[in-house]
């Protein structure tokens, strides 16, 4: 039995694929280093991320998979749910061991599962793009904190770069404790670590840190929403289908009425 550990990066996981083939030692389990528990039975293999090895694996996949299938594999990595590493590894191994395309091979259950995961992550990406609401801080930064089910922050960067190219903004994932910051020229990934705060408080700004007019803007939006909303046309079931309750925390119109 072979138990592989890696640093949690996508490149690290691709390096695991390379190492497994080089050793001809197929993993019993693949875990991130900070989560792994050493096993007394079998061999523990710690894999150090190697950009060249990862690139060789990715180029090999590119030669045998469509762009859509490659994207699905990356989305599976961002899915982050238990067992995603084995899904990616098993998919890659089938690709490399098959002479023909595996994309329609639904006899392998993980092929269909990866497609289903892609749909889940893509839906979360789309909803984050639609429901993120920025608030202006005292120093002119437009800031939003999010807590998506999946790690979709890398997927929504381009959308906000195009939509808000003329203003500084930052989006912070309070679950994964990292964010993206756009400074009018480029976007960087950032971390906001404050040892005095709990994980739930990380990345959440205080009311005193917002621009003095931010409350007025939110109130204006609530008033506008109340006025354009037609009570006779309310359809709660349809509304919840398009905007599930877990996204209401991002919407100004769903917050307690400001005065």
Keywords:
259 residues, alpha/beta, five-stranded mixed beta sheet, 8 helices, 43% helix, 13% strand, globular
What's the quick description here?
This protein has 259 residues and is of the alpha/beta class. Helices cover 43% and strands 13% of the residues. It contains 8 helices and 8 strands, in the order βαββααααββαβββαα.
Helix content: 40-55%
Mean pLDDT rating: 84
- Structural class computed from helices and strand pairing: alpha/beta
Radius of gyration: 22 Å
Order of helices and strands: EHEEHHHHEEHEEEHH
Strand percent estimate: 5-15%
Total number of distinct structural domains: 3
Q: What is the helix tally?
A: 8
Number of strands: 8
Textual characterization of the structure:
It is a single chain. The protein folds into three domains: 2-123, no CATH class; 132-211, no CATH class; 213-259, no CATH class. With 259 residues, it is of the alpha/beta class. Helix content is 43%, strand content 13%. The protein has helices at 10-23, 51-64, 67-79, 84-97, 109-131, 153-163, 214-228, 236-242; strands at 2-6, 29-32, 43-46, 135-136, 142-146, 169-173, 178-182, 187-190. Helix 1 crosses helix 2 (51-64) and helix 1 (10-23) crosses helix 4. The protein is built from eight helices and eight strands; from the N terminus they run βαββααααββαβββαα. It has a five-stranded mixed β-sheet with strand order 4-5-6-7-8, covered by helices on one side. Residues 85-253 form the DUF4130 domain.
């Amino acid at each position: 039995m072979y138990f592989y550990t890696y640093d949690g990066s996508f490149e690290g996981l691709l390096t695991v694929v390379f190492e497994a083939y080089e050793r001809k030692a197929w993993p019993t389990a693949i875990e991130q280093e900070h989560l792994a528990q050493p096993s007394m039975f079998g061999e523990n293999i710690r894999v150090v991320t190697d950009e060249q090895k990862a690139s060789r694996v990715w180029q090999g996949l590119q030669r045998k998979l469509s762009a859509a299938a490659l994207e699905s594999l990356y989305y599976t990595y961002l899915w982050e749910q238990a067992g995603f590493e084995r899904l990616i590894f098993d998919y890659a191994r089938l690709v490399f061991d098959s002479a023909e395309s595996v994309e329609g091979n639904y006899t392998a259950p993980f092929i269909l599962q990866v497609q289903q995961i892609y749909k889940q992550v893509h839906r979360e990406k789309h909803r984050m793009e639609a429901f993120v609401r920025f608030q202006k801080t005292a120093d002119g930064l437009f800031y939003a904190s999010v807590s998506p089910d999946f790690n979709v922050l890398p997927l929504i960067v381009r959308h906000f770069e195009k939509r808000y190219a003329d203003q500084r903004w930052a989006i912070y994932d309070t679950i994964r404790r990292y964010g993206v910051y756009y400074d009018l020229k480029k976007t960087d990934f950032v971390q906001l670590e404050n040892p005095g705060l709990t994980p739930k408080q990380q990345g959440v700004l205080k009311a005193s840190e917002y621009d003095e007019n931010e409350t007025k803007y939110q109130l204006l939006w609530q008033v506008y929403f109340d006025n354009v909303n037609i009570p006779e046309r309310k359809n709660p079931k349809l509304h919840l289908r398009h905007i599930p309750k877990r996204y209401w925390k991002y919407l100004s119109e769903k917050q307690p009425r400001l005065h």
